Amino acid sequence: MKKAKHAWKIWLLVLLLTAITGVAGIPGIILSAVNGIYVLMALCIALVAHAFYGITFYALAMANAGHDARVAGAVEQYGLSDLGQIAAAASLPPETAKQCLERCLRKGYLAGYMLTESGIAPIVDQRPPEPEQPRYCAYCGRKLSPGDRVCPGCGAPVD
User: Using an 8 Å Cβ cutoff, are 156 and 140 in contact?
Assistant: First the structure.
């Protein structure tokens, strides 16, 4: 969830900087044209055009990042796994919540989960546990039992 909130904050920062530079570019066009600074005027025109066309896409990206943060929060904070419950907790329609779950899993916001038809499920490790390696005494080389604190062969303390 931290990664999802961090992505939302980045999109908010990009959105604010784009809006500020777009608005600041308008008087910049006028002042640079009056003073004959054509390179600055071209830069200000580019900033205004970028803000005019780009701010919508940045706002949509920020909204999607906010949806992802809410969905990831519903899974991590409340432990929900059913799609309907996740959608209700995130205040989203079920189809949008499913898309957000897919995006959260793809971007790594929800590690250790897999998508199912009804929601998400934790990934269970089905490998058998590895057998414990035998321990040997560092002084005499005798094989030790798991509970030994003192070597039965030489009497040396064992870690």
Answer: yes
Average pLDDT for consecutive 10-residue bins of the chain (159 residues)? 92 96 95 95 96 96 95 91 92 93 92 88 80 83 85 84
Tokens in use for 147?
């509970």
- Say if CB 158 and CB 144 are below 8 A apart: yes
Between the CA of residue 114 and those of 30, 77, 86, 92, what are the distances in Å? 55, 17, 15, 20
CA distance 21 to 28: 10
Q: How far is CA 32 from the centre of its chain?
A: 42
Q: Are 109 and 102 in contact (CB under 8 A)?
A: no
